[in-house]
Design a protein that fits this description.
The protein has 146 residues and is mostly helical. It has two domains: 1-30; 33-131. It is 73% helix and 0% strand. The longest helix has 28 residues, at 2-29. The radius of gyration is 21 Å and the shape is elongated. The termini are far apart. Mean pLDDT is 81; it is low at 22-30.
């Protein structure tokens, strides 16, 4: 009887381990941004923002970091929009605007308006777009069932 219980326990433990590994792998294969990546991106954006406000020069590595962050954000948006991305999109948009990279900045602010219209950042993104001379249109509300 004890052997059967021990065998059952080991079998259930093995199934649990396999399931948890598959769940982690599924998240990785979907290309989602991990908490660690979000923290790293946020730290990098904050450091670049400090340089911008201090009128510091961006190194080629700084430019590469900014581009990498934007690519990761865009890739995550293709998978599943996540509310936690809105502040990063806004900060990256401000950085692009300060670097006179108007098209990239517009893309960041427009992403906020289209995907995070109910956040406090939407009016700020609209104001940034207006300041750049971009006509801002309110995003269309999705109909039920879409």
């Amino acid at each position: 009887m004890m052997k059967k219980l021990l065998l059952l326990f080991l079998l259930l433990t093995l199934v649990g381990v396999i399931f948890s590994i598959e769940t982690v792998e599924a998240k990785k294969s979907k290309g989602g941004i991990s908490e660690e990546e979000m923290t790293t991106m946020s730290t990098n954006v904050d450091n670049l923002t400090k340089k911008m406000y201090a009128n510091g020069l961006f190194s080629p590595q700084d430019n590469e970091n900014l581009i990498d962050i934007k690519i990761k954000l865009d890739n995550q948006m293709l998978i599943a929009p996540d509310l936690s991305l809105a502040p990063l999109y806004f900060k990256v948009g401000v950085l692009y605007k300060s670097r006179d990279m108007k098209n990239e900045a517009i893309d960041c602010f427009q992403t906020i308006l289209e995907n995070f219209a109910d956040t406090a950042l939407a009016p700020k993104a609209a104001a940034q777009l207006k300041a750049m001379g971009v006509e801002v249109k309110a995003p269309e509300k999705k109909q039920e069932g879409e």
